[in-house]
């Protein structure tokens, strides 16, 4: 779901920027709708597997709230296409985009809350990989003889 979440704010930004070119809004709204559809499907799977159940409920609820925000945003984009010079509708579109961006961050926080164990494992694996890489580098330099002690001992003696 995170991949889709990163795409949605880009479309919101483009939508608010397209206030000056309302003819672009239709394509942007269509793309945002497709991305939200993918997010909703993946969000449902994430909610079903989240532990504890409360996190799954939060994911589901926040994805639904994001969907409602997307609906309002698409409606405002359509209204602006009908009347491209209406400054009130332009402001409403920008406010809807801002609200949807906030909802995206809420979905992200819910996903991260349900992903703490996974993130801890990723962090630990990354730390272990770093240690292994450091050891490999040290062994490479020691084998090449650049880390030999001053008292004529070799790495092979300690290996």
Automatic annotation (TrEMBL):
SUPFAM superfamilies: alpha-catenin/vinculin-like. Pfam families: VBS. One of its GO terms (molecular function) is actin filament binding. Keywords: Cytoplasm, Signal. GO terms for biological process: actin cytoskeleton organization; cell-cell adhesion. Residues 15-116 form the Vinculin-binding site-containing domain. InterPro entries: Alpha-catenin/vinculin-like_sf, Vinculin-bd_dom. Its main location: cytoplasm. It is found in: Cytoplasm. GO terms for cellular component: cytoplasm; focal adhesion; plasma membrane. Residues 1-18 form the signal peptide. This is TLN2 protein. It comes from Sylvia atricapilla (blackcap). The gene is Tln2_1.
């Amino acid at each position: 779901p995170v991949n889709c979440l990163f795409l949605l704010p880009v479309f919101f930004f483009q939508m608010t920027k397209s206030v000056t070119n309302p003819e672009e809004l239709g394509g942007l709204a269509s793309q945002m709708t497709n991305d939200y559809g993918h997010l909703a499907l993946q969000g449902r799977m994430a909610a079903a597997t989240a532990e504890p159940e409360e996190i799954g409920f939060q994911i589901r609820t926040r994805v639904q709230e994001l969907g409602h925000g997307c609906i309002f945003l698409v409606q405002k984009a359509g209204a602006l296409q009908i009347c491209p010079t209406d400054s009130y509708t332009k402001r409403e579109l920008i406010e809807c985009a801002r609200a949807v961006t906030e909802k995206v961050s809420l979905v992200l926080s819910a996903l991260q809350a349900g992903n703490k164990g996974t993130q801890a494992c990723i962090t630990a694996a990354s730390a272990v990989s770093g240690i292994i890489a450091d050891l490999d580098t040290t062994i490479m330099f020691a084998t090449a003889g650049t880390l030999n002690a001053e008292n004529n001992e070799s790495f092979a003696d300690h290996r």
